[in-house]
Automatic annotation (TrEMBL):
Residues 3-306 form the FAD/NAD(P)-binding domain. Keywords: FAD, Flavoprotein, NAD, Oxidation, Oxidoreductase, Redox-active center. Belongs to the class-III pyridine nucleotide-disulfide oxidoreductase family. The keyword Oxidoreductase applies. The keyword Transcription does not apply. Residues 333-429 form the Pyridine nucleotide-disulphide oxidoreductase dimerisation domain. One of its GO terms (molecular function) is oxidoreductase activity. Pfam families: Pyr_redox_2 (PF07992), Pyr_redox_dim (PF02852). The lineage of its organism: Bacteria, Bacillati, Bacillota, Bacilli, Lactobacillales. Its cofactor is FAD. It catalyses: 2 NADH + O2 + 2 H(+) = 2 NAD(+) + 2 H2O. Its EC number is 1.6.3.4. This is NADH oxidase. PANTHER family: NAD(P)H SULFUR OXIDOREDUCTASE (COA-DEPENDENT) (PTHR43429:SF1), PYRIDINE NUCLEOTIDE-DISULFIDE OXIDOREDUCTASE DOMAIN-CONTAINING (PTHR43429).
Length: 443
């Protein structure tokens, strides 16, 4: 009987475990996780903290008993001290100090990522928080519930930072958003889109401090202020949302790593050790936009990578289709979605690209419910293949991005998109669809 040990039981580990258990019930599966819970949808933390949903219970989609009912052995609140890859043993310790060892035939590393923590003076003060685990969300929610918490400083204007800034503002706090770069959401969107988001944040009372690097936290026991390259600001709560690094410490001496320290995997999720798979935020992905291996930490990528590893371990040969890094955000009613590469990201990667923009109403102007839609399609100059798309609107335009994700995966050209059959009905769109119009304007 094949025995698989899975280290880490969040999205990627859960997907791998379920896939093996559902497709190879004769195999033995052991799951190990250091947390008290599993399957927490961290992307919903801001919705809960901002009281846009009633409670956090729905942010968990499975539990320990679900896997035990399928025949798995699962250890929670258990850390992995080290792994002997030659003897194929995983050395563990429970929360009460008991040590034990699990052998394996196949090993899945699903150890995720860890928040970047600035090593600056005052970083040991209370009320300096991160947002990763359920417990982090609980801590932030508790501090926001204290009436003495008036000023909230959010450091990092990526997705998590912008979302938690909105949540804190919805809780009636004075919110300051800091980033060393000059705009929000720079990793996924060009300035044509982020200018709108910056204005949206400011219009809703978020105090923006872009182009400022945090240098120090001040306070006695609790944080009371932060010092940046441009000034000093009161802060009763600091939420660090600078980003994440792959957690690859268990195998970094044995397995081949990517340039950022993530486990380097092939299209089957196998590492340089054929009996070891790596999935989720601790591993690389294959980008169809770049047509190269890269690192994109998203829950959707984690789930897909877990599925791929699970199928291969279950004896069903499966290759990853690659990813586009599709993503989206909705802040104070402004919806933005993107996939693939922005113009700025493509140029940083050395791709010569062009782009086409279009802006119009979502529906014909005689429709009572309507809003503007902005679209940018990015394509490679030499091949004319689509490598990215961005959209924004106060309408729900999220579904459109899936088509562009498929277009990138299938190396669809901008020219082929020009006369694509797109339906029309006034309830949904215009006869001259913004997708068609943007494509027709491509050089």
């Amino acid at each position: 009987m094949t025995k698989t040990v899975i280290v880490g039981a969040n999205h990627a580990g859960v997907a791998a475990a379920n896939t093996i258990l559902d497709n190879a019930p004769d195999q033995e599966v052991v799951m190990i996780d250091s947390n008290t819970n599993l399957s927490y949808l961290g992307c919903g933390t801001a919705l809960w903290v901002g009281r846009q949903i009633d409670s956090y219970e729905g942010l968990f989609y499975t539990k320990k008993e679900d896997f035990e009912n399928k025949g798995a052995k699962i250890f929670m609140e258990t850390s992995v001290d080290h792994i002997d890859f030659i003897k194929k043993t995983v050395h563990c310790q429970t929360k009460d100090g008991q040590e034990f060892t699990e052998t394996y035939d196949k090993l899945v590393l699903a150890t995720g990522s860890t928040p970047i923590s600035p090593k600056i003076p005052g970083n040991d003060l209370q009320n300096i928080q991160f947002l990763k685990r359920f417990q982090d969300g609980q801590a932030v929610d508790h501090i926001l519930g204290d009436d003495t918490t008036k000023n909230v400083a959010v450091i990092g204007a990526g997705y998590i930072g912008v979302e938690i800034a909105e949540a804190a503002k919805r809780r009636g706090k004075n919110v300051l958003l800091f980033d060393a770069v000059d705009r929000a959401l720079p990793n996924y969107y060009d300035t044509w889109f982020t200018d709108d988001m910056d204005k949206n944040l400011a219009d809703n009372g978020i105090e923006l401090h872009f182009g400022e690097l945090v240098q120090e936290y001040k306070g006695t026991d609790k944080v009371e202020a932060i010092v940046t390259t441009k000034g000093e600001y009161k802060a009763d709560l600091v939420i660090n949302a600078i980003g994440f690094l792959p957690n690859a410490k268990l195998g970094h001496d044995h397995l081949e790593l990517f340039k950022n320290g993530a486990y380097l995997v092939d299209r089957h999720q196998q590492t340089s050790d054929p009996d070891v798979y790596a999935v989720g935020d601790c591993a690389t992905v294959y980008s169809n936009a770049l047509q190269a291996t890269t690192y994109i930490a998203l829950a959707t990528n984690a789930i897909r990578s877990g599925l791929v590893a699970g199928y291969n371990i279950a004896g069903i040969p499966t290759e990853s289709e690659g990813v586009q890094g599709s993503n989206g955000i909705s802040i104070f009613g402004l919806n933005m979605v993107s996939t693939g590469l922005s113009v700025e990201a493509a140029e940083k990667q050395g791709l010569e690209v062009a782009y086409t923009d279009f802006e119009d109403l979502q529906r014909p102007d005689f429709m009572k419910e309507n809003a503007k839609v902005k679209i940018r399609i990015v394509y490679e100059v030499s091949s004319r293949r689509i490598v990215g798309a961005q959209l924004s609107s106060r309408e729900d335009i999220a579904g459109t991005i899936h088509m562009f994700s498929l277009a990138i995966a299938e190396q669809f050209t901008i020219d082929k998109l020009k006369l694509l059959d797109i339906f029309f009905l006034p309830h949904f769109n215009q006869p001259y669809n913004y997708i068609t119009m943007a494509a027709l304007q491509a050089k």
